[in-house]
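notes to self, project folder thing:

trying the whole complex as one job this time. last attempt i did each chain seperately and stitching them together was a nightmare. two parts in total, labels are on each line so i dont mix them up again. if this works i'll redo the older ones the same way
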Amino acid sequence: MTTAADSWLTQVPCLDMPDLAFVQHVSFSILDRLAADRNLLTTLVDEVLSHPSRMAASRVTLLLNRLSLWEAPDHSFEIRLNMNPRPENQLVPHDHCYAFATHILTGGYVHVVRRRTDGREGPFTGADLQPAIVTVERPGSVYVLDHSMVHQAVMAPHTVTLFIRGPRRKASSHAADELMPPEQSWPEPAVLGNEPEPSRPATVAEYLAMRRYLLQHRIIN
Amino acid sequence: MTAILPAFVQPLLDQSTDPGEIPPIDPSHVLGWRASLASRILSVFDTGSYRADGSFLAHGYTHLPVSLPDGPTVYLRMAAQSGLLPWPVLATSVVLTIAGALELEMYQEVADSLAQRPYYARVFRPEEVFAVHAETLCATRSSVDALQLLAFASSENLGGSPLTRDEYTRAAQRAREVLESVSLAAAGGRP
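result (full assembly):
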Protein backbone atom coordinates (compact mmCIF):
# COMPACT_ATOMS: atom_id res chain seq x y z
CA MET A 1 0.00 0.00 0.00
CA THR A 2 1.33 3.43 -0.90
CA THR A 3 -1.29 5.80 0.48
CA ALA A 4 -4.24 5.62 2.85
CA ALA A 5 -6.48 6.35 -0.14
CA ASP A 6 -5.65 2.83 -1.38
CA SER A 7 -6.74 1.25 1.88
CA TRP A 8 -9.97 -0.30 3.17
CA LEU A 9 -10.90 3.07 4.67
CA THR A 10 -12.41 4.10 1.35
CA GLN A 11 -14.86 1.20 1.60
CA VAL A 12 -16.33 2.21 4.97
CA PRO A 13 -20.08 2.90 4.69
CA CYS A 14 -21.57 6.34 5.33
CA LEU A 15 -21.83 7.13 9.03
CA ASP A 16 -24.38 9.91 8.65
CA MET A 17 -27.03 7.95 10.54
CA PRO A 18 -29.04 9.01 13.59
CA ASP A 19 -29.00 5.46 14.96
CA LEU A 20 -26.17 5.26 17.49
CA ALA A 21 -26.35 1.47 17.47
CA PHE A 22 -25.44 1.52 13.77
CA VAL A 23 -22.67 4.06 14.39
CA GLN A 24 -21.42 1.82 17.20
CA HIS A 25 -21.34 -1.26 15.00
CA VAL A 26 -19.45 0.41 12.14
CA SER A 27 -17.13 2.60 14.18
CA PHE A 28 -16.08 -0.20 16.54
CA SER A 29 -15.18 -2.26 13.50
CA ILE A 30 -13.15 0.59 11.99
CA LEU A 31 -11.35 1.37 15.23
CA ASP A 32 -10.54 -2.25 16.03
CA ARG A 33 -9.19 -2.79 12.53
CA LEU A 34 -7.13 0.39 12.51
CA ALA A 35 -5.77 -0.24 16.02
CA ALA A 36 -4.47 -3.58 14.74
CA ASP A 37 -3.02 -2.12 11.51
CA ARG A 38 0.17 -0.35 12.57
CA ASN A 39 1.28 0.17 8.97
CA LEU A 40 -1.89 1.98 7.98
CA LEU A 41 -1.82 4.04 11.17
CA THR A 42 1.75 5.04 10.37
CA THR A 43 0.80 5.99 6.81
CA LEU A 44 -2.10 8.09 8.07
CA VAL A 45 0.11 9.95 10.53
CA ASP A 46 2.78 10.51 7.90
CA GLU A 47 0.25 11.83 5.38
CA VAL A 48 -1.17 14.57 7.63
CA LEU A 49 1.47 17.10 6.66
CA SER A 50 0.85 16.66 2.94
CA HIS A 51 -2.94 17.16 3.23
CA PRO A 52 -3.77 20.77 4.12
CA SER A 53 -7.29 19.89 5.28
CA ARG A 54 -5.97 17.25 7.69
CA MET A 55 -3.27 19.60 8.92
CA ALA A 56 -5.85 22.34 9.49
CA ALA A 57 -8.04 19.92 11.45
CA SER A 58 -5.12 18.76 13.61
CA ARG A 59 -5.36 20.87 16.72
CA VAL A 60 -3.86 21.80 20.03
CA THR A 61 -6.68 22.23 22.54
CA LEU A 62 -7.07 22.93 26.21
CA LEU A 63 -7.87 19.23 26.76
CA LEU A 64 -5.32 17.47 24.52
CA ASN A 65 -3.55 17.49 21.17
CA ARG A 66 -4.92 15.69 18.13
CA LEU A 67 -4.06 14.67 14.62
CA SER A 68 -6.77 14.48 11.97
CA LEU A 69 -5.90 11.26 10.16
CA TRP A 70 -8.68 10.77 7.67
CA GLU A 71 -11.94 12.27 6.55
CA ALA A 72 -14.38 10.13 4.59
CA PRO A 73 -14.93 11.28 1.00
CA ASP A 74 -18.62 11.82 1.85
CA HIS A 75 -17.58 13.74 5.01
CA SER A 76 -19.68 11.43 7.16
CA PHE A 77 -16.82 10.66 9.53
CA GLU A 78 -13.33 11.75 10.55
CA ILE A 79 -10.68 9.66 12.29
CA ARG A 80 -8.41 11.34 14.81
CA LEU A 81 -5.56 10.37 17.05
CA ASN A 82 -5.73 12.06 20.47
CA MET A 83 -2.65 12.41 22.67
CA ASN A 84 -0.78 14.66 25.12
CA PRO A 85 -3.72 15.05 27.54
CA ARG A 86 -3.91 17.97 29.96
CA PRO A 87 -5.56 16.14 32.88
CA GLU A 88 -5.67 19.28 35.04
CA ASN A 89 -8.06 20.77 32.46
CA GLN A 90 -10.12 17.66 31.85
CA LEU A 91 -12.46 18.03 34.81
CA VAL A 92 -14.73 20.25 32.76
CA PRO A 93 -18.00 18.47 31.80
CA HIS A 94 -18.66 19.01 28.09
CA ASP A 95 -20.51 17.68 25.11
CA HIS A 96 -19.54 17.46 21.43
CA CYS A 97 -21.01 18.60 18.13
CA TYR A 98 -21.10 15.00 16.88
CA ALA A 99 -21.47 11.43 18.02
CA PHE A 100 -18.14 9.71 18.43
CA ALA A 101 -16.48 6.43 19.29
CA THR A 102 -13.15 6.00 21.03
CA HIS A 103 -10.66 3.13 21.20
CA ILE A 104 -7.95 3.45 23.85
CA LEU A 105 -4.49 2.56 22.52
CA THR A 106 -2.30 3.37 25.53
CA GLY A 107 -2.76 4.78 29.02
CA GLY A 108 -6.28 5.03 30.36
CA TYR A 109 -8.75 7.19 32.18
CA VAL A 110 -11.74 7.43 34.42
CA HIS A 111 -14.67 8.31 32.18
CA VAL A 112 -17.72 9.94 33.70
CA VAL A 113 -20.88 10.18 31.59
CA ARG A 114 -23.41 12.58 33.08
CA ARG A 115 -27.09 12.92 32.36
CA ARG A 116 -28.67 16.32 31.96
CA THR A 117 -31.65 17.19 34.09
CA ASP A 118 -32.53 20.27 31.99
CA GLY A 119 -33.26 18.62 28.65
CA ARG A 120 -30.76 17.68 25.98
CA GLU A 121 -30.26 20.91 24.02
CA GLY A 122 -28.33 24.13 24.56
CA PRO A 123 -25.96 25.31 27.29
CA PHE A 124 -25.89 23.76 30.76
CA THR A 125 -24.21 24.28 34.11
CA GLY A 126 -22.84 21.78 36.59
CA ALA A 127 -26.09 22.06 38.53
CA ASP A 128 -27.92 20.54 35.55
CA LEU A 129 -25.87 17.35 35.68
CA GLN A 130 -26.07 14.07 37.55
CA PRO A 131 -23.52 11.24 37.34
CA ALA A 132 -24.80 8.35 35.23
CA ILE A 133 -22.16 5.89 34.02
CA VAL A 134 -18.57 5.78 35.28
CA THR A 135 -16.00 3.51 33.69
CA VAL A 136 -12.29 2.90 33.93
CA GLU A 137 -10.97 2.88 30.38
CA ARG A 138 -7.83 0.90 29.58
CA PRO A 139 -6.08 -0.12 26.35
CA GLY A 140 -8.54 -1.99 24.14
CA SER A 141 -11.65 -0.30 25.58
CA VAL A 142 -14.15 1.04 23.04
CA TYR A 143 -17.30 3.07 23.58
CA VAL A 144 -19.65 5.29 21.63
CA LEU A 145 -21.30 8.51 22.86
CA ASP A 146 -24.03 10.65 21.33
CA HIS A 147 -23.45 14.36 20.75
CA SER A 148 -26.05 15.30 23.38
CA MET A 149 -24.29 13.45 26.18
CA VAL A 150 -22.05 15.25 28.66
CA HIS A 151 -18.84 13.64 29.81
CA GLN A 152 -15.45 14.01 31.45
CA ALA A 153 -12.34 11.99 30.69
CA VAL A 154 -9.43 12.63 33.04
CA MET A 155 -6.55 10.89 31.33
CA ALA A 156 -3.33 9.32 32.54
CA PRO A 157 -0.29 11.18 31.13
CA HIS A 158 0.56 8.86 28.24
CA THR A 159 -2.93 8.18 27.03
CA VAL A 160 -3.36 7.90 23.26
CA THR A 161 -6.76 7.18 21.75
CA LEU A 162 -8.17 6.54 18.31
CA PHE A 163 -11.30 8.61 17.85
CA ILE A 164 -13.91 8.55 15.12
CA ARG A 165 -16.53 11.25 14.91
CA GLY A 166 -19.71 11.37 12.88
CA PRO A 167 -21.17 14.38 11.09
CA ARG A 168 -21.80 17.66 12.88
CA ARG A 169 -25.20 17.70 14.62
CA LYS A 170 -25.18 21.19 16.13
CA ALA A 171 -23.52 24.57 15.67
CA SER A 172 -21.37 24.47 18.80
CA SER A 173 -20.53 22.24 21.71
CA HIS A 174 -21.11 23.21 25.33
CA ALA A 175 -19.24 23.03 28.61
CA ALA A 176 -20.05 23.86 32.23
CA ASP A 177 -18.66 27.40 32.35
CA GLU A 178 -17.94 27.41 36.07
CA LEU A 179 -15.62 24.43 35.61
CA MET A 180 -13.85 25.77 32.52
CA PRO A 181 -10.06 25.82 32.96
CA PRO A 182 -8.64 29.32 33.38
CA GLU A 183 -7.20 31.10 30.34
CA GLN A 184 -3.67 30.75 31.73
CA SER A 185 -3.98 26.98 31.22
CA TRP A 186 -5.01 27.23 27.56
CA PRO A 187 -2.49 26.38 24.83
CA GLU A 188 0.16 28.97 24.11
CA PRO A 189 -0.74 31.00 21.02
CA ALA A 190 0.90 29.80 17.82
CA VAL A 191 2.03 33.33 17.07
CA LEU A 192 3.75 35.32 19.77
CA GLY A 193 1.54 38.20 20.90
CA ASN A 194 -1.76 36.60 19.88
CA GLU A 195 -4.43 35.88 22.48
CA PRO A 196 -4.57 32.30 23.80
CA GLU A 197 -7.41 30.18 22.41
CA PRO A 198 -9.03 27.05 23.87
CA SER A 199 -8.39 25.31 20.55
CA ARG A 200 -6.22 26.21 17.56
CA PRO A 201 -4.62 24.43 14.58
CA ALA A 202 -1.35 22.67 15.31
CA THR A 203 1.79 24.19 13.88
CA VAL A 204 4.16 22.13 11.74
CA ALA A 205 6.55 21.96 14.71
CA GLU A 206 3.71 20.64 16.88
CA TYR A 207 2.75 18.07 14.23
CA LEU A 208 6.36 16.88 14.11
CA ALA A 209 6.46 16.69 17.91
CA MET A 210 3.28 14.58 17.93
CA ARG A 211 4.68 12.28 15.26
CA ARG A 212 7.93 11.93 17.21
CA TYR A 213 5.95 11.15 20.37
CA LEU A 214 4.01 8.41 18.56
CA LEU A 215 7.25 6.92 17.27
CA GLN A 216 8.89 7.01 20.69
CA HIS A 217 5.90 5.24 22.22
CA ARG A 218 5.82 2.69 19.38
CA ILE A 219 2.31 3.57 18.36
CA ILE A 220 3.52 4.02 14.78
CA ASN A 221 6.46 2.49 12.96
CA MET B 1 -13.69 -1.18 52.86
CA THR B 2 -13.59 -4.92 53.14
CA ALA B 3 -10.41 -6.61 51.98
CA ILE B 4 -12.50 -8.85 49.72
CA LEU B 5 -13.19 -6.15 47.12
CA PRO B 6 -10.51 -4.35 45.08
CA ALA B 7 -9.63 -0.89 46.43
CA PHE B 8 -11.07 0.92 43.40
CA VAL B 9 -14.65 -0.17 44.19
CA GLN B 10 -15.20 2.17 47.15
CA PRO B 11 -14.33 5.44 45.31
CA LEU B 12 -16.84 4.44 42.62
CA LEU B 13 -19.53 3.79 45.23
CA ASP B 14 -18.70 7.01 47.07
CA GLN B 15 -18.84 9.39 44.10
CA SER B 16 -21.09 12.35 44.89
CA THR B 17 -23.19 14.39 42.49
CA ASP B 18 -20.57 17.19 42.47
CA PRO B 19 -19.98 17.80 38.73
CA GLY B 20 -16.29 18.43 39.36
CA GLU B 21 -15.72 15.16 41.18
CA ILE B 22 -14.04 12.27 39.42
CA PRO B 23 -13.37 9.09 41.41
CA PRO B 24 -9.64 9.12 42.30
CA ILE B 25 -8.64 5.90 40.55
CA ASP B 26 -5.40 5.22 38.72
CA PRO B 27 -6.37 3.18 35.62
CA SER B 28 -3.08 1.30 35.77
CA HIS B 29 -4.19 -0.14 39.12
CA VAL B 30 -7.37 -1.56 37.62
CA LEU B 31 -5.60 -4.57 36.23
CA GLY B 32 -4.80 -8.05 37.47
CA TRP B 33 -7.53 -8.12 40.12
CA ARG B 34 -9.83 -10.76 38.67
CA ALA B 35 -8.19 -13.98 39.83
CA SER B 36 -7.45 -12.78 43.34
CA LEU B 37 -11.01 -11.49 43.65
CA ALA B 38 -12.32 -14.88 42.51
CA SER B 39 -10.20 -16.60 45.17
CA ARG B 40 -11.37 -14.25 47.89
CA ILE B 41 -15.02 -14.61 46.90
CA LEU B 42 -14.65 -18.39 46.94
CA SER B 43 -13.48 -18.14 50.54
CA VAL B 44 -16.73 -16.48 51.63
CA PHE B 45 -19.26 -17.80 49.08
CA ASP B 46 -21.48 -20.48 50.53
CA THR B 47 -23.25 -22.71 48.02
CA GLY B 48 -25.34 -24.53 50.64
CA SER B 49 -29.02 -24.43 49.80
CA TYR B 50 -29.82 -22.79 53.15
CA ARG B 51 -28.18 -19.67 51.64
CA ALA B 52 -31.02 -19.34 49.13
CA ASP B 53 -32.51 -16.60 51.32
CA GLY B 54 -31.70 -13.29 49.70
CA SER B 55 -31.14 -14.74 46.24
CA PHE B 56 -33.46 -13.57 43.49
CA LEU B 57 -34.12 -13.21 39.78
CA ALA B 58 -34.49 -9.65 38.46
CA HIS B 59 -34.09 -7.81 35.14
CA GLY B 60 -32.64 -10.85 33.43
CA TYR B 61 -30.10 -11.88 36.07
CA THR B 62 -29.85 -14.41 38.83
CA HIS B 63 -28.50 -12.67 41.95
CA LEU B 64 -26.69 -14.67 44.62
CA PRO B 65 -25.84 -12.86 47.85
CA VAL B 66 -22.25 -12.83 49.01
CA SER B 67 -21.81 -12.23 52.69
CA LEU B 68 -18.88 -9.95 53.42
CA PRO B 69 -17.56 -9.32 56.92
CA ASP B 70 -18.00 -5.60 56.28
CA GLY B 71 -18.45 -3.23 53.35
CA PRO B 72 -21.22 -2.88 50.78
CA THR B 73 -24.02 -5.21 49.79
CA VAL B 74 -22.63 -7.63 47.22
CA TYR B 75 -24.13 -10.18 44.85
CA LEU B 76 -22.78 -12.53 42.23
CA ARG B 77 -24.83 -11.99 39.08
CA MET B 78 -25.38 -14.35 36.15
CA ALA B 79 -27.43 -13.89 33.00
CA ALA B 80 -30.75 -15.70 33.10
CA GLN B 81 -32.06 -14.26 29.80
CA SER B 82 -30.36 -13.46 26.53
CA GLY B 83 -32.07 -10.18 25.53
CA LEU B 84 -31.19 -6.56 26.19
CA LEU B 85 -33.23 -5.79 29.31
CA PRO B 86 -33.80 -2.55 31.24
CA TRP B 87 -31.92 -2.27 34.52
CA PRO B 88 -33.70 -0.03 37.01
CA VAL B 89 -30.84 1.35 39.08
CA LEU B 90 -32.02 2.37 42.56
CA ALA B 91 -28.64 3.10 44.16
CA THR B 92 -25.09 3.56 42.91
CA SER B 93 -24.07 0.13 41.68
CA VAL B 94 -20.64 -1.13 40.72
CA VAL B 95 -20.22 -4.08 38.37
CA LEU B 96 -16.99 -6.06 38.13
CA THR B 97 -16.89 -8.44 35.19
CA ILE B 98 -15.37 -11.76 36.23
CA ALA B 99 -16.23 -13.80 33.13
CA GLY B 100 -18.06 -13.33 29.83
CA ALA B 101 -19.20 -10.17 28.10
CA LEU B 102 -21.68 -7.47 29.06
CA GLU B 103 -23.27 -4.90 26.75
CA LEU B 104 -24.42 -1.68 28.37
CA GLU B 105 -26.65 0.94 26.78
CA MET B 106 -27.75 4.23 28.34
CA TYR B 107 -30.82 6.24 27.33
CA GLN B 108 -31.95 9.79 27.93
CA GLU B 109 -35.68 9.19 28.19
CA VAL B 110 -38.02 6.28 28.69
CA ALA B 111 -39.11 6.49 25.05
CA ASP B 112 -35.48 6.00 23.98
CA SER B 113 -35.28 2.99 26.23
CA LEU B 114 -38.43 1.46 24.79
CA ALA B 115 -37.13 2.03 21.26
CA GLN B 116 -33.66 0.77 22.30
CA ARG B 117 -32.20 4.02 20.96
CA PRO B 118 -29.00 4.41 23.02
CA TYR B 119 -27.00 7.57 23.70
CA TYR B 120 -24.05 5.69 25.12
CA ALA B 121 -22.98 2.12 24.46
CA ARG B 122 -20.07 0.01 25.55
CA VAL B 123 -19.13 -3.65 25.68
CA PHE B 124 -17.32 -4.91 28.78
CA ARG B 125 -14.99 -7.88 28.67
CA PRO B 126 -13.67 -9.86 31.66
CA GLU B 127 -11.75 -7.82 34.26
CA GLU B 128 -13.47 -4.51 33.65
CA VAL B 129 -15.42 -2.31 36.02
CA PHE B 130 -18.12 0.30 35.80
CA ALA B 131 -20.56 2.15 38.02
CA VAL B 132 -24.13 3.15 37.28
CA HIS B 133 -25.77 5.87 39.34
CA ALA B 134 -29.36 5.93 40.57
CA GLU B 135 -32.04 6.95 38.08
CA THR B 136 -29.85 6.31 35.06
CA LEU B 137 -31.93 4.77 32.29
CA CYS B 138 -29.96 1.82 31.02
CA ALA B 139 -30.17 -1.72 29.78
CA THR B 140 -27.74 -4.61 29.74
CA ARG B 141 -27.26 -7.90 27.96
CA SER B 142 -24.74 -10.48 29.13
CA SER B 143 -23.35 -13.58 27.48
CA VAL B 144 -24.47 -16.94 28.80
CA ASP B 145 -21.04 -17.54 30.35
CA ALA B 146 -21.01 -14.19 32.16
CA LEU B 147 -20.37 -13.87 35.86
CA GLN B 148 -20.28 -10.46 37.48
CA LEU B 149 -19.91 -9.11 40.95
CA LEU B 150 -22.39 -6.39 41.83
CA ALA B 151 -21.78 -4.03 44.76
CA PHE B 152 -24.30 -1.48 46.04
CA ALA B 153 -23.81 1.72 47.94
CA SER B 154 -26.89 0.93 49.99
CA SER B 155 -28.79 -2.18 50.98
CA GLU B 156 -32.00 -1.20 49.22
CA ASN B 157 -34.45 -3.97 48.45
CA LEU B 158 -33.96 -4.84 44.78
CA GLY B 159 -37.23 -6.71 44.42
CA GLY B 160 -37.35 -9.59 41.96
CA SER B 161 -38.51 -13.16 42.41
CA PRO B 162 -36.86 -15.28 45.11
CA LEU B 163 -35.02 -18.38 43.94
CA THR B 164 -36.08 -21.79 45.17
CA ARG B 165 -33.48 -23.82 47.02
CA ASP B 166 -32.92 -25.98 43.95
CA GLU B 167 -32.53 -22.95 41.69
CA TYR B 168 -30.12 -21.40 44.15
CA THR B 169 -28.06 -24.59 44.43
CA ARG B 170 -27.74 -24.92 40.65
CA ALA B 171 -26.83 -21.26 40.16
CA ALA B 172 -24.41 -21.22 43.07
CA GLN B 173 -22.68 -24.32 41.78
CA ARG B 174 -22.30 -22.72 38.36
CA ALA B 175 -20.91 -19.56 39.91
CA ARG B 176 -18.47 -21.55 42.01
CA GLU B 177 -17.22 -23.40 38.93
CA VAL B 178 -16.55 -20.12 37.12
CA LEU B 179 -14.80 -18.65 40.16
CA GLU B 180 -12.66 -21.76 40.51
CA SER B 181 -11.82 -21.68 36.82
CA VAL B 182 -10.75 -18.01 36.95
CA SER B 183 -8.82 -18.57 40.13
CA LEU B 184 -7.11 -21.72 38.83
CA ALA B 185 -6.17 -20.17 35.47
CA ALA B 186 -4.31 -17.39 37.27
CA ALA B 187 -2.46 -19.91 39.41
CA GLY B 188 -1.03 -21.42 36.22
CA GLY B 189 -3.38 -24.38 36.05
CA ARG B 190 -5.85 -24.97 33.27
CA PRO B 191 -9.48 -25.61 34.10
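what i see at first glance: Chain B is about 25% helix and 30% strand.
need to look closer tmrw
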